[in-house]
Amino acid sequence: MKKHQKTKLALAQWEKSFRADAKADDYRIFREHLRRLDMPEKPNMLLDGTVVVVQMCAAYLELDGQEVIEFLERQTYDPRKSSDMPYQVTLDIHRKAYARINLPASLRPVDLADLYGAPWNDYGVVGYCDIWISRIDEVPLSPDEIAKFETVVEEDLRFDYSEDELSFWFDPDTHDGVLKVSIQDVYDNEESDDDKDAVSAPDRF
Fold first, then answer.
1. How would you label 163-188 residue by residue, b for 16+ Cβ within 10 Å and e otherwise?
2. In this structure, are residues 149 and 133 in contact, taking their beta carbons and an 8 Å threshold?
3. Which residues have a Cβ under 8 Å from the Cβ of 116 and sit 6 or more positions away?
4. What tens digit of pLDDT does each residue of 118-175 get?
5. Which pLDDT tens digit goes with each residue over 34-67?
6. pTM for the whole structure
7. What is the dihedral of CA 183, 184, 186, 189, to 10 degrees?
8. Which residues contact 66 (CB under 8 A, 6 or more apart)?
């Protein structure tokens, strides 16, 4: 079986199991996670968004010749079952959907810059506007953890985007022990407000 076919089969099996686990739990874990971040309590938006983002991550990993199966095995509905993944990153796909990915402190193998430029055909938008980094065990991030994540995120995004292209800022205070990162395109100061509205981030697609 060719590598692409194996990845396609593994993705289908993962999605089936992930959706079944969420349904069996009546989306309780998702509801609690959304509530913790003061996000709309719409677990289906988090379920479907997670599936779409995991699929995109798998596509990037395959293109880069990296391991896909191991990444999928760590994307459990109950994040506590992914014991070697102490953190989770939650993405806001321009209020169209949300996604939650279980990751190590390096945030690898996910590439935040790649995902910022990813087209979401199902939603008609590109990338995301905010991410939240938190601990799976819900213990507040320490100042040292926050500082390290700020460095990791900055290095990831700046590898692909210059300061003239992308702006982002960190918010460690809105949600206790959770690091929020807001991201947006940089626009030419000479553009009018109407021009900016016409090319706002959700319309980059």
1. eeebebebebeebeebbbbebebeee
2. yes
3. 127, 128, 157, 160, 161, 166, 183
4. 999 999 999 999 999 999 999 999 999 999 999 999 999 999 999 999 999 999 999 9
5. 999 999 999 999 999 999 999 999 999 998 888 8
6. 0.88
7. -120
8. 109
